[in-house]
Amino acid sequence: MLNTQCAKQKTMANQNNQENLFQKVVAHAKEYGFVFPSSDIYGGLQAVYDYGSNGAELKNNIKKYWWAAMVQMHENIVGLDSSIFMDSKTWKASGHVDAFNDPLIDNKDSKKRYRADVLIEDHMAKYEAKIEKEVAKGKKRFGDDFDTEQFLATNPNVLRNKAKIEEIETRFKKALEAEDLADIKQIILDNNIVCPISGTANWTDVRQFNLMFSTEMGSLADDSNRIYLRPETAQGIFVNFLNVLKTSRMKVPFGIAQIGKAFRNEIVARQFIFRMKEFEQMEMQFFVKPGTEMKWYNYWKDARMKWHHAIANDNEDYRYHDHLKCAHYANAAVDIEFKFPFGIKELEGIHSRTDYDLGAHQDLSGKKLQYFDTEENKNLVPYVVETSVGLDRMFLSVLTAAYTEETVKDGDKEKQRTYLKIHPALAPTKAAIFPLTKKDGLPDKAREVMKELKYDFNVSYEEKDAIGKRYTRQDLIGTPYCITVDHQTLEDNTVTVRERDTMDQFRMPIAELHSFLDKKASLRHLLKELEA
Ligand SMILES: Nc1ncnc2c1ncn2[C@@H]1O[C@H](COP(=O)(O)OP(=O)(O)OP(=O)(O)O)[C@@H](O)[C@H]1O
User: Fold this and answer.
1) Cα(211) to centroid of ligand 1, in Å?
2) 485 and 517 housed in the same domain
3) Residue of the nearest CA to atom 2 in ligand 1?
4) Residues 343 and 442 in one domain
5) pLDDT at 331 exceeding the cut of 90
6) Which one of 214, 358, 455, 523 has the minimum C-beta count within 10 Å?
7) Number of structural domains, the chain?
8) Statement to judge: residues 111 and 173 lie in one domain
9) Among 346-355, 359-368, 403-412, 509-518, whose mean pLDDT is lowest?
10) Ligand 1 pocket list (CB less than 6 A)
11) How far is it, in rounded angstroms, from Cα 339 to Cα 274?
């Protein structure tokens, strides 16, 4: 009994730590110019955010990394920049007008609204956490002799929790497939899932809510002029399939990539930039011969995980999660999930979308959306494998993984240090250049060093305060290198380079700085590593 109590306290302490960490990251993002609430002076607009000077740099670097890895590195992928407004028939054909819904449920006591599917998935995650805890206990007890597979297959506590997950999963899948909203509510009641605020199970019925924003185009506010803000960028790619096929000299299999804004009227929008009403997506649709889609689905599943790992601090933060129920357009779907401080959540989706979209647009527009297959000697509607990652969610994963607090030695004492361990190729500023003092011609020399580097790297200059304070400021925004120009520089043209993560310092000739930064902090080098 005492043990259980103790374990419970530890889990709660861990949860509290994670919540604290998340609050710190949100505060840090605002304080150091990464993310601001939109319309901040009016109190902020719910689930809409602006990116500050450092945030805009980081966001752009993530975009560049994605675009280069997709378009530049693949001979058979081309880019596109389609508009946000599209003919409303697009959304009828794609199924968004009829089926882009979330099942919502309200707690009558707290008056808070939740996505019913998220409540159930979070509940199942609790059983998964219990299994993980059993495994950790087993490992601790048996050390090197511990056989995880056998333990998972035989331990009674693990089997009990597994059975519970399976039971809920099967019933939930059935209810989703049948769109049985009453049973979704019943699952919540039967499992005693309570509102995290009120702690009660006093729920309303579950109802569907369409997530698209609409407005009118033109002077008449009637239904014929209704237009939607796109809820995904993918449809802009589908409706341009023929245009790109004709103009780009691409042959199936080939892909079209696009980065752009998408809009969803997310009712349960919490967790900062994880779920926003206005956000950006980086999507790629890969058009393949029907029947080959699973080969490409597996190829992209693997390639996208590698892309994440190449900039990760810890590969263990990522995992695959197969979908319980595929969306109406897909025959296979997997998420790449990331360990956010508030739980393991979807970061990217990889979907085998069949010929659903092109087929539906073909039917409604009357235009043939096909390619000529030379093997079959006939026209075919290609199948599509999609990779879709939220830019803002990606930003949040980078920021939360990067936020580091540690205790370091300061002479005889110890002090707390906070820094952002962002991959150098994504860091907003690659290097900060400091003259040791404002005298003796050091600022001029430091400006000379800036000039050597600024055409290829985003570098900054600082001369205010003691060097230690300047290091701290750069640590807080994730600058991987600080370069100090001192009196010795005037004699031998060397500078002191200080590394963010190790705090190591070493001297380097000015003439070598460019190739040093290129190797350590350039997108070029990151892409080479990705391909190796
Ligand atoms: N409201 C949002 N705010 C920020 N990013 C989003 C939002 N909705 C989706 N994304 C991002 O776009 C990607 C692809 O969109 P997709 O339609 O597959 O998401 P989804 O499955 O609806 O996401 P979720 O289940 O979290 O609502 C997601 O993996 C996510 O990174």
Assistant:
1) 12
2) yes
3) 275
4) no
5) no
6) 455
7) 3
8) yes
9) 403-412
10) 232, 264, 266, 275-276, 279, 281, 346-349, 388-390, 392-393
11) 12
- 88 annotated as ligand-binding: no
| Residue 207 CB partners (closer than 8 Å, separation 6+) | 103, 104, 105, 181
Residue 105 β-bridge partners: 114
Q: Distance from the CA of 411 to the center of ligand 1, in angstroms? A: 48
275 by DSSP, 3-state: which?
coil
315 is in an annotated binding site: no
- Whole-number Å distance, alpha carbon 395 to ligand 1 midpoint, is 13
- Does 449 share its domain with 411? no
Model confidence at 1: pLDDT above 50:
no
Q: How much is the pLDDT for 524?
A: 96
Alpha-carbon separation of residue 278 from 281, 350, 373 (angstroms): 10, 21, 39
pLDDT (0 to 100) of residue 267: 79
Does the residue 219 lie in any domain? no
Per-residue exposure over 370-406, b if at least 16 CB sit within 10 Å of its own CB, e if not = bbeeeeeeeebbbbbbbbbbbbbbbbbbbbbbbbeee
| Confidence at residue 262, expressed as pLDDT on a 0 to 100 scale | 98
Q: Three-state DSSP class for 337?
A: strand
Mutate to test the pocket of ligand 1, among 102, 328, 346, 397 (most ligand atoms within 8 A of CB): 346
Atom number in ligand 1 closest to CA 115: 27
pLDDT at 5 over 50: no
* Residues contacting 377, CB < 8 A, separation 6+: none
Q: How buried is 100 (Cβ within 10 angstroms: 0-12 exposed, 13-18 middle, 19+ buried)?
A: buried
- Choose the residue to mutate in 393, 394, 398 for probing ligand 1, maximizing ligand atoms within 8 Å of C-beta: 393
Give, using CA atoms, the residue closest to atom 23 of ligand 1: 346
Q: Ligand 1 center to residue 105 CA distance, Å?
A: 20
Which of these, 74, 68, 62, lies nearest to 255 by C-alpha position? 74
The answer to the question of residue 218 being in a domain is no
Query: For residue 274, how far is its CA from the centre of ligand 1 (angstroms)?
Result: 9
Residue 458, by phi and psi: left (phi above 0), alpha (psi -120 to 50) or beta? beta
On whether both 110 and 80 belong to a single domain, the answer is no
Q: How far is the CA of 390 from the centre of ligand 1 (A)?
A: 6
Name the domain boundary from 385, 418, 451. 418
**119: domain CATH number?**
3.30.40.230
Same domain, 81 and 38: yes
